[in-house]
Amino acid sequence: MSAEVPDTAKSRAAILGAIRRGLGRDGAPTRAQREAPETRLATHPRNLQPARTAGADHGGLAHLFRHYAEAVQATVTEVADMASVPAAVADYLRRENLPARAVMAPDPALDAAPWAETGMLSIRRGKPTESDEVSVTSAFAGIAETGTLVMLSGKEHPSTLNFLPETHIVVLSADRVVGTYEDVWDRIRRKMGGAVPRLPRTVNLVTGPSRSGDIQQTLLLGAHGPRRLHIVLVG
Amino acid sequence: MEGSTSHDFKANATRELANADLRAALSGSDRTFVAGRARVVANLPEFDALRDAAKAIKDHTLANLDHYLEVWERRAREAGGHVHWAKDTAEARAIVLALCKRAGARAVNKGKSMIAEECGINEMLEANGIRPVETDLGEYIIQIRHETPSHIIAPAIHLTKAQVEKSFRETHTGLDPARDLTEPRALLTEAREILRKKYFEAEVGITGANFLVAETGSSIIVTNEGNGDLSQLLPRIHIVLASLEKVVPTLEDASTILRVLARSATGQEFSTYTTLSTGPRRADDLDGPEEYHVVVLDNGRAAMLGGEFHEMLRCIRCGACMNHCPVYQAVGGHAYGWVYPGPMGAVLTPALIGIEHAAPLPNASTFCGRCEQVCPMRIPLPGMMRKWREREFDKGLTPRPARQGLKLWAAFATRPRLYRFVTGLAMGALARLAGRKGRLRRLPLAGGWTRYREFPAPEGRTFQAMWAEKRGRP
């Protein structure tokens, strides 16, 4: 089967024309009319910021992050350093009666942990398949405001790791916890560089495990994405 | 209007009022949506100020809509995405079909999208031998029941657990008939397992969009299940359906609106998954779609700009208005007869399909004002319903008895002495008729009211008479 995808340039012109008529314009916006939107795009000013996380230091942000993450049924373990992460992961899996087997992001940030030494975990690096039950990834950031994790797609972090396995374990260093969503956008802009930010293909903001209320408004965890979201907070 | 029964609201509502399952299914809304919203709003002192900020963002965006759409389009293309423009639903269907055919698609996974409902994407795909698979649990349930969504964020809210169980048993015939499905958890697990297999079969994934971000050329979806993510990550092609008013300037602007969206919708601080998609997978990505397409739909929205219903374009589809609407909660979403129910539907539907096809909807309101009270974008919904009623009257669409009644009332109201005299007599008569009970079971010319409930009788004197006597003193 093959098909010609319609050229929609005519419809584009008609739609933009209708918009301009509605806005009372003769044609494309003038330089003066473009100034306010261009400035807004270039400077991306912050709107009102909730005071919830304002003024909190690193410890305070990590504390708030944990509070809000647990409020949405994520579980959190705190460890002192990366060396303690594999044991914490193995402990969690044992406690939850889950297999000591995981697919892990090919992420150098996770290499600092002595996975092999633990000897309790069987680990494969890469993207998940249908049969993987547990995934381990890092996170680009944590947002204290709502206990939200931020994951960026890339060769080090296939996005399907955040969704396919029933259990998702996230290793998050405490110094990556910021206050608000806006703090994360600034960090992403710095990381990606350039005058115009080019986002990774997928940016996932994840707040708790997957859920649905679609059966008679009963809240159930694990609809399509992970049923369990466990966060190992490091440092 | 094809596929719409909005003109028949009265008959639809009468049918739904007799639906005991609907009663039972909707009875939980106060406990979940309404109480949930109240709880999270109480937890955020800035909530009302954030509503003002969110409104200001959309007002600014709409005032510069052409510019922001062009910037968004340019950046989406720079990121490797394809942008298609559709004036109406027929053009949107043609684009989607061509993309699916070119991909050789036999199955399409769908994340929840009201624009897909508006365009009739599923019917079109089926007519062309392509199997649409709804992956949102609520959408899946109504798809196997051959129904339409009755709520914009909770499509199967009109169904009881027992109805879902029955549909699963009728559809999933390969499974053990003796299996236990009494717990909602068992139903969820069954749906999860069945849909899991289908995720890997589809060549195309279709999602909606809560936002288009001009700054980055991205689309954003907000979900709780994760189905919208699997639907866009696993197939080879991702198609986004977005109406043109979804654009916002920056990530900061999206963040502000996101802060009021989930709180207003489900009573969550934040939805489980907020996903930003920008272009197709990159050269060294290990997963993600190879093609990313966005279909931008107008279908009557551009014509709303600058007019009486301009402010409706601020709507972010949270559903708070219907969760708090006494009419919606009594008759459910299907009574509204088209894609968008409740107060937002009563304003939007006439704008999109024409007041001549949807005249009863703006009348299906008690004007209690709760919808406007809870609307995160501060849309004056009752005021706009009143404007539709005026248009309906001007176009001669108002039913004849109502027109004649209004004429009669006007004849009295423009003659103050006569008005006072006649209303004085009528109030006294009604009070005597009702007796000590103070309620009337039948009333001439008011059968439309007393057929369903008693009419509270006046206390015997008119407001004007009491005012004249007290001169405004309490």
Describe the structure.
- The complex is a heterodimer of chains A (235) and B (474).
- The model of chain A has no long low-confidence stretch (mean pLDDT 94).
- In chain A, the strands form three sheets. A six-stranded parallel β-sheet of chain A has the order 1-12-7-4-2-3, with helices on both faces.
- Chain A has a domain at 67-209 and 217-234: Rossmann fold (3-Layer(aba) Sandwich).
- Chain A has helices spanning 9-22, 31-43, 58-71, 85-95, 108-111, 115-118, 181-192, and strands spanning 75-79, 101-104, 122-125, 134-138, 141-143, 148-152, 167-173, 177-178, 202-206, 211-212, 220-221, 228-234.
- Chain A has seven helices and twelve strands.
- With 235 residues, chain A is of the alpha/beta class.
- The termini of chain A are far apart.
- In chain A, a hairpin with a 4-residue loop joins strand 5 and strand 6.
- Chain B has 474 residues and is an alpha/beta fold.
- Chain B has three domains: 1-43 and 322-398, no CATH class; 53-297, Rossmann fold (3-Layer(aba) Sandwich), CATH 3.40.50.10420; 400-470, no CATH class.
- Chain B contains 23 helices and twelve strands.
- Chain B has helices at 9-17, 20-26, 29-42, 47-63, 65-78, 89-102, 114-119, 121-127, 137-144, 161-171, 184-199, 227-233, 251-265, 320-323, 326-331, 342-353, 355-358, 370-374, 381-394, 400-413, 416-434, 447-450, 463-470; strands at residues 82-86, 107-110, 131-134, 204-207, 211-213, 218-223, 237-243, 247-248, 273-277, 291-297, 439-440, 455-456.
- A six-stranded parallel β-sheet of chain B has the order 1-10-7-4-2-3, with helices on both faces.
- In chain B, helix 16 packs parallel to helix 19 (381-394).
- Chain B is globular, with a radius of gyration of 25 Å.
- The model of chain B has no long low-confidence stretch (mean pLDDT 94).
- The interface between A and B is large, with 88 and 112 residues.
